[in-house]
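pls design
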């Protein structure tokens, strides 16, 4: 059949028009069939989520003291009589009938009605606020029904969402055009229609002809067919569905968030940016046609932020998917004609970047590293796509002006270039100057002082007046306003409500005699690093190792995986020996000597091990770029000088996709520098919060954040010398 465009002035095309109308009606039917299948799958999730949410709301109301009713009524309701009657919780009040409440001693009819109304109000609020979570260790019937319902949409994947969006648009467009084209359905109707209706009818037929051609070019009929097949696949067994949930929890929660999630907090999702800035960013279009993943709302906003503001730092807390947001921004630019993209990252996370690009998008990616880097570089220069390289390899790449126009430069773990004097920072700045857009990714934009953050912003190549505005502020609220155009940060607790919580425990141990002897010797020699690891100097007598073995044994009893972090090789060696001696399935050590490209393989092997296992890792290595959700118990062998090191390490475990509550144990020695260090670092962490996260107004001066490792070490050594020298 000819695909020449219609001319409304030409004579009525007869059979040709009827064929176009037939094909348009058929395509609309396929679109509606897909929409019906998708709606059925969504309805199944909505129905299954109700009992699970009800149980969670019920549990929350049972734990809510009845005194909350007084606060809800602004003190108008006295709850003494309710408490004396044994109704100690809001849930208990809801379980009591109005008549029974009115019969309680000391409770009037009005008080009973007020109590019930207030309890129902709290129940409704809880229903809107509570996030549905699924516990892999509690696979009851309602939770299993929900996992099975979610599985259908998870298996169908983002293509099903894309098919639904396309089907919705086509259905509306074709329905409107078919109504306009009705006179063209037959010669008789065309003749009787009159000239005022004939021309619009032929115009509508022409528009339908164009719409069909575009749909065919976009392969929408094939997309509808495949999505329909995926949505109608036979359900897996409950056991298979739970296994798939554990492997792809983030995908399941992404679907649940869109269908049965709590009312979103728009301010949290947008990083509490100024409303006028949020409005401009929200208006930024985001083409998702080259993505293989469904984005959460806050992730879509992050990608739009990078596109709209062009040169920015994405500072989301660990585990919120900064990599996916960067991929989404690049995918949009690729769909709109961008050709060349460059990702610069630490060597150890290059494998993860290549894997994520392949899994999450259709963007062609090439690793520019190793012996074949020149061939890879030429392929990228010639064909485009995403080049992934390391900081060290960046210096061997040709100068930016000899490379095709760079649509976006992505710099991962960007805090590594905060010092503008280093060669690494200068090379990144050079590439940033030649890129159309620049996106820095880092969860620790500020580790010690605001000045470091300002240096990082300068690397983006932003206008000088913005740098002046940032450098001129001294108060935390002013600082956040000044950096809003280039800095976006969201926290897990604000936007990832379904993430299981963390339970942090400081495990205090008393030095053994050998521990104390080693510690005193380290203090007397003013050896700060020896002081930090003195508790492991004699492993057979180490009090910290005794507690570590107990924690690992508890995890083994529960079938949980454990990751042990330390800064020191000899501590990791002592831990490894102790755990091997008790027959623990053991992986590692993952440290600086582990080839960078082998690090992800080691993490994968650890995750694939059945049941309980332990991996030991140097915290500087395991906390950088690797995703270790297989573990749910974290043991920190000693406190870290930089709070960000601990946060990063825990964040590699407690992140999107984690299905269990994460237990974090920090081993500390009583009456030692550990105690003083923890106090100082808690103060430092609060200062960081005032500037890098949303908080109440802080009066802290920016320079108060300047706590260098060297000065902190000197202070701690001197404090311990004085303490140990003091008479008992």
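designed seq:
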């Amino acid at each position: 059949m000819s695909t020449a465009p219609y001319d409304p002035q030409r004579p009525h095309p007869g059979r040709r028009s009827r064929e176009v109308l037939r094909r348009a009606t058929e395509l609309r039917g396929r679109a509606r069939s897909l929409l019906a299948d998708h709606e059925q799958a969504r309805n199944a999730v909505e129905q299954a989520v109700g009992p699970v949410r009800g149980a969670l709301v019920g549990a929350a109301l049972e734990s809510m003291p009845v005194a909350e009713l007084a606060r809800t009524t602004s003190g108008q309701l006295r709850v003494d009589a309710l408490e004396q009657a044994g109704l100690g919780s809001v849930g208990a009040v809801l379980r009591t009938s109005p008549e029974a409440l009115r019969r309680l001693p000391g409770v009037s009819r009005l008080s009973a009605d007020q109590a019930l109304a207030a309890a129902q109000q709290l129940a409704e609020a809880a229903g809107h606020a509570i996030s549905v979570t699924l516990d892999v260790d509690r696979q009851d019937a309602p939770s299993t029904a929900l996992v099975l319902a979610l599985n259908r949409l998870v298996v169908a994947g983002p293509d099903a969402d894309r098919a639904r969006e396309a089907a919705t648009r086509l259905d509306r467009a074709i329905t409107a055009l078919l109504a306009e084209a009705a006179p063209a359905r037959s010669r008789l109707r065309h003749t009787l229609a009159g000239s005022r209706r004939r021309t619009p009818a032929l115009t509508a037929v022409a528009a339908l002809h164009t719409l069909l051609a575009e749909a065919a070019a976009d392969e929408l009929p094939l997309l509808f067919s495949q999505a329909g097949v995926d949505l109608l696949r036979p359900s897996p067994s409950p056991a298979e569905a739970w296994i798939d949930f554990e492997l792809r929890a983030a995908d399941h929660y992404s679907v649940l968030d869109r269908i049965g999630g709590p009312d979103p907090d728009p301010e949290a999702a947008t990083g509490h940016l100024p409303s006028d800035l949020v409005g401009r960013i929200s208006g930024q279009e985001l083409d998702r046609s080259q993505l293989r993943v469904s984005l959460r709302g806050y992730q879509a906003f992050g990608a739009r932020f990078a596109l709209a503001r062009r040169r920015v730092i994405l500072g989301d807390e660990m585990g919120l998917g900064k990599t996916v947001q960067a991929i989404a921004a690049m995918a949009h630019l690729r769909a709109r004609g961008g050709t060349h993209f460059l990702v610069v990252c630490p060597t150890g996370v290059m494998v993860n970047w290549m894997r994520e690009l392949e899994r999450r998008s259709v963007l062609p990616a090439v690793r520019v590293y190793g012996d074949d880097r020149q061939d890879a570089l030429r392929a990228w220069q010639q064909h485009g796509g995403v080049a992934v390289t390391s900081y060290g390899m960046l210096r061997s790449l040709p100068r930016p002006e000899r490379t095709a126009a760079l649509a976006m430069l992505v710099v991962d773990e960007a805090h590594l270039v905060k010092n503008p004097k280093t060669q690494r920072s200068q090379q990144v700045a050079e590439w940033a100057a030649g890129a159309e857009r620049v996106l820095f990714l880092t969860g620790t934009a500020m580790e010690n002082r605001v000045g470091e953050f300002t240096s990082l912003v300068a690397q983006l190549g932003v206008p000088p007046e913005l740098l002046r505005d940032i450098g001129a502020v001294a108060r935390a609220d002013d600082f956040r306003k000044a950096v809003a155009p280039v800095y976006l940060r969201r926290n897990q607790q604000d936007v990832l409500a379904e993430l299981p919580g963390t339970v942090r425990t400081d495990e205090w141990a008393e030095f053994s005699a050998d521990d104390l002897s080693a510690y005193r010797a380290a203090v007397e020699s003013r050896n700060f690093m020896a002081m930090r690891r003195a508790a492991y100097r004699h492993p057979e007598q180490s009090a910290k190792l005794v507690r570590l073995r107990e924690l690992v044994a508890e995890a083994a009893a529960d079938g949980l995986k454990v990751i042990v972090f330390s800064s020191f090789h000899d501590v990791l060696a002592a831990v490894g020996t102790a755990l091997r001696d008790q027959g623990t399935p053991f992986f590692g050590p993952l440290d600086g000597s582990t080839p960078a490209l082998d690090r992800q393989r080691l993490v994968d092997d650890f995750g694939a091990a059945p049941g309980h296992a332990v991996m030991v890792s140097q915290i500087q290595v395991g906390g950088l770029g690797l995703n270790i959700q297989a573990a749910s118990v974290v043991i920190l062998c000693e406190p870290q000088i930089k709070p960000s090191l601990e946060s990063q390490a825990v964040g590699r475990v407690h992140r999107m996709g984690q299905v269990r509550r994460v237990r974090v144990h920090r081993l500390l020695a009583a009456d030692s520098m550990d105690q003083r260090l923890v106090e100082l670092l808690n103060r430092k962490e609060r200062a960081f919060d005032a500037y890098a996260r949303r908080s109440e107004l802080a009066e802290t001066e920016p320079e108060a954040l300047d706590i260098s490792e060297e000065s902190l070490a000197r202070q701690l050594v001197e404090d311990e010398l004085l303490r140990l020298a003091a008479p008992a």
